[in-house]
Amino acid sequence: KTLNDSSGSLNIFKKEETSDGALINSSGKESAVTITVAGASGDLAKKKIFPALFALYYEGCLPKHFTIYGYARSKMTNEQLRTMISQTLTCRIDQSGNCGDKIEKFLQQCFYHSGQYNSEEDFSQLDKDLKEHEGGGLANRLFYLSVPPDVFIDVARCASLRASSLKGWTRVIVEKPFGRDSESSAELTRGLKNYLTEEQIYRIDHYLGKELVENLSVLRFSNLVFEPLWSRQYIRNVQLIFSEDFGTEGRGGYFDSYGIIRDIMQNHLLQILALFAMEPPISLDAEDIRNEKVKVLRSMRPLHIEDVVVGQYKSHVRGGVKYPGYTDDKTVPSNSITPTFAAAALFIDNARWDGVPFLMKAGKALHNRRAEIRVQFRHVPGHLFKRSFGMDLDQATNELVIRVQPDEAIYLKINNKVPGLGMRLDRSNLNLLYADRYSREIPDAYERLLLDAIEGERRLFIRSDELDAAWSLFTPLLKELEARKVVPELYPYGSRGPVGAHYLAAKYNVRWG
Ligand code: NDP
Ligand code: BG6
User: Fold this and answer.
1) Where are the alpha helices (DSSP H) in 161-251?
2) Taking Cα atoms as reference points, which of 296, 420, 412 lies closest to residue 346?
3) Backbone angles phi, psi at 240, to 5 degrees
4) Which of 79, 323, 413, 469 could form a disulfide with 493 if both were Cys (CB 3.0 to 4.6 A apart)?
């Protein structure tokens, strides 16, 4: 089904029907929906969820009749919630300046309900409020669990209480972490499924909502020049790199019991890898895409400790400024060995990728902020330009870089003749820099994902079997690291990370990009 969206471009994913209620029309804009953000007083709600909802409203993407409820234990009036939201509307739309009217109208649709996360009574009060807004008509309800994981199941239970008696759908967005290992994840899934069907559960990985990650399938499957090269025959290695130039500031408490492998690798980077490496799906339907991702994950070798390097940042003085070490954070135990950096080599044992190292690197407090996929191709066979004209073509192989953030771009490193008399070769980029090519601002990942959840599109959400497969890969490694109490290699705040990562890459004849 292809529909034109308001921007005039083709949106091939919007659907006319959803499998869990079929109660929104093709644009989803005419029907009513209530969106309840549990944990509305928290960091994520303020930073991401409310701004994303406002951006959707501003763009005319929310259904005509929408109501937003903040729910949390903190006492707050509707007015206080509105003030809080308006103070944190740091979204891209707000930056465009002249949207005061729209903000006011949006805020009038925002309400607050205070209650406990495990109290059926409090949720039945909320239900009454929601019903008033629904006016006896369709009750399409989206709950966003922006709360710590130990209350996920309580909220799911309470939120689902009235679902079966309502005319309309109930969907629940669940934030990460989805457990700490295979067992706890399975337990969480079982707990959620006591109250919700798999179709109602929207496990969010916001990296799947990033523009360049969503573009991966388009790049591969709609360009003849890429797909034939997408295999062990032409690709030497693939690198998935996440780096942040700040530490765990403010989130040390959460981070210390998870660490970078669970925080970034097992979810964000692995999801990118699965999309990158999957076989062509038979359609763009959510189940077809997720089936292919599961196949990739199941074809992967569980990680070995020998193929992993862990690090932790230490304090560092630069330009007279002291940058704190990880354990300087008051919420982190001073003897913590939780990794804030990890590098790993992963392998997919299928016909397409046999023997190709997929190297992942993720770290906090490094020298820059970036998320990239780097695809290094094999060297050109034959001797025509080898070791001549000033370049070693065994080194200067083609490389495709998909820069997810910042400054979204796709560029291909090629060898080119330097113009002029004589013959000298040079490395150049074929460069698609989004800021130059597209004038539209790129929506925040949460905007896309919230809209998808409202429209019943599950393609960018994690299915439970995907989650199981992802944990199966990482759980043995995590257990071993913890059982052996592996001490991370220290690296200075703002550096390029531990040298061990370079040895790991060298073991597979790879140089980090
Ligand atoms: P917060 O720690 O800010 O918690 C959200 C709200 O939950 C708080 O405002 C508080 O509201 C309530 N809460 C806090 N601690 C407890 C507790 N022990 N028991 C019951 N309720 C509690 O979390 P965030 O907003 O940072 O994150 C929300 C969810 O999103 C978490 O699962 C987190 O892992 C995930 N996440 C967060 C990201 C971020 O950048 N912040 C990024 C990715 C995922 P009140 O006391 O008013 O009820
Ligand atoms: C979150 C992690 O999932 O992603 C954080 O918990 C990390 O530790 C964040 O900082 C990065 O997201 P983004 O979109 O800012 O790259």
Assistant:
1) 182-193, 211-221
2) 296
3) -120, 110
4) 323
- Catalytic positions, please? 268
Q: Which residues pair with 342 in a beta bridge?
A: 310, 362
Nearest to 422 by CA among 390, 381, 396, 383: 390
Residue nearest to atom 27 of ligand 1 (CA): 44
Residue 43 Cβ < 6 Å to ligand 1: yes
Tokens of 218: 């388009």
pLDDT band at 337; cut points 50, 70, 90: very high
By CB neighbour count within 10 A (0-12 exposed, 13-18 middle, 19+ buried), where does 384 fall?
exposed
Q: Determine the average pLDDT of the residues in 352-381.
A: 97
| Tokens of residue 513, six digits | 């990009």
Highest mean pLDDT among 123-132, 154-163, 361-370, 415-424: 361-370
Cβ-based neighbours of 491, under 8 Å, separated by 6 or more: 311, 312, 313, 314, 341, 497, 498
Beta carbon of 38 within 6 Å of any ligand 1 atom = no
d(CA 350, CA 372): 24
Cα→Cα distances 208→6, 143, 205, 217, Å: 23, 20, 6, 12
Which residues lie below 8 Å from residue 22, measured CB to CB, with a gap of 6+? none
Best probe residue, ligand 1, of 36, 37, 43 (max atoms within 8 Å of C-beta) = 43
Closest CA to 329 of 312, 317, 341, 342: 312
Q: How many angstroms separate the alpha carbon of residue 290 from the centre of ligand 1? A: 28
Q: What share of the chain is helix, strand, coil (3-state, %, to 5)?
A: 35, 25, 40
CB 491, CB 247: distance < 8 Å: no
Is the pLDDT assigned to residue 16 strictly greater than 60?
no
CA 97/CA 338 separation, integer angstroms: 42
Given the cut 0.90, state whether the ipTM is greater than it.
Answer: yes
Q: How far apart are CA 341 and CA 335, in angstroms?
A: 16
Query: Which residue has better confidence, 250 or 5?
Result: 250
Measure the N-to-C terminal CA separation of the chain; round to a whole number of Å.
40
User: Closest residue (by CA) to atom 13 of ligand 2?
Assistant: 207
Give the DSSP per-residue string, 464-490. Answer: HHHHHHHHHHHHHHHHHHHHTTPPPEE
**Quick one: pLDDT at residue 264?**
98
Residue 361 has pLDDT above 50, yes or no: yes
Query: Whole-number mean pLDDT of the chain?
Result: 90
Instruction: Give the binding-site residues of ligand 2, using a 6 Å CB cut-off.
Output: 206, 244, 263, 371
